[in-house]
Design goal:
Blueprint: H1 2-18, H2 27-43, H3 45-48, H4 57-77, H5 82-107
Helix pairs in contact: 1-2, 1-4
Length: about 110
């Protein structure tokens, strides 16, 4: 599970790195969020170096890749409109909330 969370954070970071952020978003909050995601990735790098690999990690990675490719495609399809970015923002918040709700025991 830790590796899937790490992969999710990396995908979120990559999504925002690849495209210009919407001008309508609060720049201070946006930078704080990006900083938090980046710090979590850096602090969690040791998880990826654990010797025991989960048996289903390749299928999780494939699922995460497809999920974030779908999000990226939706942004492109909607020409990176503010509305499209809001949908992406809500989807990422829903994803992060799901992780917290279902994995608080590994986050402590």
């Amino acid at each position: 599970v830790e590796k899937a969370v790490y992969q999710t954070l990396e995908n979120i970071d990559a999504l925002f790195e690849n495209y210009n952020d919407p001008d309508q978003w609060d720049a201070k909050k946006w930078n704080e969020f990006r900083g938090l995601v980046y710090r979590q990735i850096v602090d969690s790098k040791c998880i990826m170096s654990k010797s025991e690999a989960a048996q289903d990690l390749p299928s999780r990675e494939a699922s995460l890749k497809k999920y974030f490719e779908t999000i990226s495609s939706a942004l492109k399809e909607k020409d990176f409109s503010y509305c499209a970015w809001e949908i992406v923002r809500n989807e990422i918040l829903r994803t992060l909330k799901f992780i917290l709700d279902h994995n608080t025991d590994i986050m402590l």
